[in-house]
Amino acid sequence: MAITMYDLAGAEADRRFSPFCWRARMALAHKGLDVETVPWRFTEKDKLPKPNDGRVPVIIDDGRVVHDSTAIADYLEERYADRPSLFGGETGRALCRFVQNWTETVLQVGLIRLVVLDIHRHVGPADQEYFRSSRESRFGASLEEFVKDREARLPAFRTSLDPLRRTVERQDFLSGKNPGYADYIVFGAFQWARAISDFELLATDDPIAAWRGRMLDLFGGLARRAPAYGS
Amino acid sequence: MAITMYDLAGAEADRRFSPFCWRARMALAHKGLDVETVPWRFTEKDKLPKPNDGRVPVIIDDGRVVHDSTAIADYLEERYADRPSLFGGETGRALCRFVQNWTETVLQVGLIRLVVLDIHRHVGPADQEYFRSSRESRFGASLEEFVKDREARLPAFRTSLDPLRRTVERQDFLSGKNPGYADYIVFGAFQWARAISDFELLATDDPIAAWRGRMLDLFGGLARRAPAYGS
Prior knowledge:
homodimer, 231 residues, four-stranded mixed β-sheet, 57% helix, 9% strand, globular
């Protein structure tokens, strides 16, 4: 029986733009597991299976509910230990936490200041007010104010990606010759931006763009086929 | 027979302050190998065993010369495969590269702007002119100019350490329950600063300070015993 995954959707049900859901989606594909996704919107908190923390991803696997992308990855690694490993061992899992913390404190923080207004344009009508007021309260600025001058901030954003750039310039994936969960964590952030924004985050000759292309090719082009902008 | 390691030294022969040499020193200890270090100064390029690229660390193990800290770690992992692993497998090794690239583009770049003048004070008399002119040419500024206002830059430096902070707040070491080469890479940068500067890089209640304390305790206090400032 396929695993069910609750997946953040925009006004169009097939536009999926949660970085955390993309981590889980890629991890499920890495394990070769069938999945049926259920489109879910920010304001549908009562539609999630329990337990949950009001957010996605949440998966149901044979009656078992697991929420939070990190918990889902850990669950899949243990439950499907006979399938390709996400972490490549305990050291790999521990170092994934560093990649995750870099992604959440540098990459995603930089991205939100470039694309948050584009997200607002794509969320469903019922979600727009919730999205605007929750984010404006968090940022202490209007969405328009928060992203203005994004062109001017782009060079600093690109420089902040140096650790990623140097790594994927010298090896195909963060995880080495083959992709692993660390790649899915970082890729989730790029796929989030790609789903809702045509803003050019990367120069075309950036080694990160080449790596993103390799990620888009994985699993029969799973992420490339999803409704999104750009290449 | 003990391994010989050429190790960057200051005016005092036992003040060792190369971040790259500390990586190698900790990796040798991790493998439980005896080492005899040879103090070496920047301007003694003709005193290094060949092959070398004019820099340290360089090790000699049973007649074999290996230079460059990354090559040394790879060599030790293969040659002493029966001893505790530095990487915990190929994924761990690949993810170490990301930690290394973060260390070299964020941590060490931030540190040099805080402590480069302190380095100058500690290098040997014959090295001072070389050190000043090579660094001032690289930075396009005098050493004094380069570090001025370091107090004002300290908050941004500390914020730049968020990925490290969040990780070692939740697990003892970057590599998990036990330290590994990723820890030695990051620690090398802190030990470099600690060897030559009394500038307080970290607040006392910073989880990174607690992690650094755990690193200083390793291998019978190997790094703690070395001539340095602070705790």
